[in-house]
Amino acid sequence: MDGGRSPGLAALLSFLLPGLGQLYAGRPRRALLFLVPALLTWGVILAALAGGWWALFGLLVRPAVLNVLLLVNVVLLLLHGLAVVDAYALTRRRAGHGGRRGGAGFAALLLALAGTLLVHGLPGMYGYSLAVNLPRFVNDGPSSGMPTPSWAVSPSAEPTHAPTDQPSIPASPSPTLPPTPDPSPSGTPFSGPPWADDGRLNVLLLGSDAGPGRWSARPDAVHLVSIEIETGRAALFAFPRYMNNLPMPPETAHMFKDGRYPGYLNSLYVAALNNPRRYPYNDDAGWGVMAGVVQELSGVELDGYMVVDLHGFERMVDALGGLHVQVPPPGVVDPRYGLGTGRTVRLRLDPGCHQLDGRMTLFFSRSRRQDGDIQRLGRQLVTLRSVLRQHDPLEVLPRLPAIFDAAGDGFHTSFGSDDLAPLAEVLGRVDPDRVHTTIFAAPEYPRDLRDDTVERIHEVVRGVFDRPRAPAQRVDCPPD
Fold this sequence. Notes:
Layout: H1 7-16, H2 20-24, H3 28-50, H4 53-60, H5 63-95, H6 103-137, E1 200-208, E2 219-228, E3 234-238, E4 246-247, H7 250-253, E5 260-261, H8 268-274, H9 285-298, E6 304-309, H10 310-319, E7 323-327, E8 332-338, E9 344-349, E10 352-356, H11 358-366, H12 373-390, H13 393-396, H14 400-407, E11 411-413, H15 417-428, E12 435-439, H16 451-462
Parallel strand pairs: 1-6, 3-12
Antiparallel strand pairs: 1-2, 2-3, 4-5, 6-11, 7-10, 8-9
Helix pairs in contact: 1-5, 1-6, 4-15, 5-6, 6-14, 8-9, 10-11, 10-14, 11-12
């Protein structure tokens, strides 16, 4: 008998790599029973990493793949624990310890088992949370798809509108943000879902005012983010909620005189929600028709939309650990800011860089008592750029379960789980300090839309990446 071999050390070795403890005990054939599954597992992990972090991200955000990985993880946990116990018991027998239990060796065994549970338990809890929550937040079921743009059903490849003799008016930049430069024209090739085929990602972002004490949801924040995929050049466009005489998509244009919706942009959701049979967008009648109208307004085909309500947004910011925001002059103050519970409080933010929690970020983005809708839209664009600047998609991955839990029922999207990794990769290419911003506000863009105004909006959105931009100061918030 070999009394020099330590059962505790054998247990720790099999914790580091199942089968090493058996080799240490002098049982190579037995070691293979544990080494082979362990080495195969590491081989699969390395193969996934060889495809790049985005490939791994894509695997981890697919519910079907997650369910398989969870089952495999349980099997590996049992094998790992068995390898630790077996190595300890085998070495004790060969060393001749018999029924005596050495204190140090037994403590090492408990430590190895605790480590095994931790190594498999933490990823298991993370994966379980993702597998449970992902189906709630992505659209993997049957869908009527995005509304058909009017130019896709006409002989021309371009939308047709009444001609106008008025000169084109340049885009109106956000009052709080300077114009931004174009990055280098060279880019990185990208292959992905069908929405990437035209080389441009167009996503509608909607901020809904649904919450406690509110009878319905109205999209008071309507933004279009457009990204040139290969170069990462990006633009944010804000559409004021009070725009009216809106061009409707082909599916619903026949319902209104001249194909125009006469009400405000933010009232369209409720109108569709109250008449779902008239709007062919299945359960997404309200958001579907909003996407169709913004598609007609912008002149570019939308690839999808994302919706977040007030309290979902607040909780998601908290789950991200807050947000650094550069508050532009003159700051923001509201003596009667509503909390959604019938109570009001006085809130104030002075100009400068602030670390904001979810409530204060929502206050910064929503408040308009001191100025108005246009300034509020500018602050919302500042918030979006702050999110892009501070939260890289890969760095957010470990926090996804907490973000999903925080969002609750306050988040909705037309994208499916297969889209998440390519979307994150495209967002990761964007330099947030080089994002062009435009607010389609009066007087440059009258709220009562005519054909000539719509055409000018089309020209701005379609050609946003064709024009050079003046250099802009980088925002040092948070400070380096």
